[in-house]
Amino acid sequence: MSISCNAVRDIFVLYRDGALSPETEAEVRAHIDSCGACREEYREMEKSYKNSTSKKTSPRTVTPPENLRFQVVAGKLRKNRIKKELISNTAWGLAVLGGVLITLAVYKGHINRLQGK
Predict the structure, then answer these.
(1) What is the C-alpha to C-alpha distance for residues 45 and 34, in angstroms, rounded to an integer?
(2) Reported pTM
(3) On the chain, which terminus has fewer CB atoms closer than 10 Å, C or N?
(4) What is the pLDDT of residues 2-45, one digit of tens each?
């Protein structure tokens, strides 16, 4: 059974990592041996992989700022304070609205009594 170039290219990484079944690995190897385009692309991928894993290009170690923990805790406290202020402001707003509604109801009742309704 012949395997297509697209299928081989899709599994290059699995082939490189030895994650294919022996049968599939043999088919991929046979295809790479017989197809110059896939062979060249596989070599380029291998070269790129080796360059990316070499020590000279390995990622540098990043040290977090000393005050990172403080910044995280301060951010959480700030967020909690904002939530509490929002709840408090909402409660005050509802209390004022309730007072206005009660005042209007009393006023309307007073007007109705004066008009004899």
Answers:
(1) 18
(2) 0.44
(3) N
(4) 789 988 988 888 888 888 999 999 999 999 999 999 999 999 88
